[in-house]
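User: Just a sanity check before I run the rest of the batch. Below are the structure tokens for the first item. I only need the designed sequence back.
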């Protein structure tokens, strides 16, 4: 699994560091513009053979939900979930779910 954090909508890279520290068990990479500017800060999750997710309006307050998502996503065979409520507040911040 790889996590991508948009670095275009922030000028100091501080949020990338927050996500790296909060999700230290996965690879977190800064990436230039994911076209989610109206919902900045954007974070994406991708794993081979799984649906990819793009979330927007992510803040440091979402770190618990992001950690829960990482565990659920890793445990899911295809990246989907039978009930979106398990995603907590992230279900309201989903911008896209992209087929794997």
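Assistant: Here's the designed sequence for the first item:
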């Amino acid at each position: 699994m790889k996590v991508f954090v948009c670095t275009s909508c922030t000028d100091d890279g501080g949020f990338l560091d927050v996500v790296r520290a909060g999700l230290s068990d996965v690879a977190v990479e800064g990436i230039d513009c994911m076209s989610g500017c109206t919902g900045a800060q954007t974070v994406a999750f991708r794993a081979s053979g799984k649906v990819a997710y793009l979330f927007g309006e992510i803040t440091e307050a979402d770190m618990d939900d992001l950690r829960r998502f990482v565990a659920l996503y890793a445990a899911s065979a295809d990246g989907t979930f039978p009930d979106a409520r398990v995603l907590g507040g992230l279900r309201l911040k989903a911008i896209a779910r992209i087929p794997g």
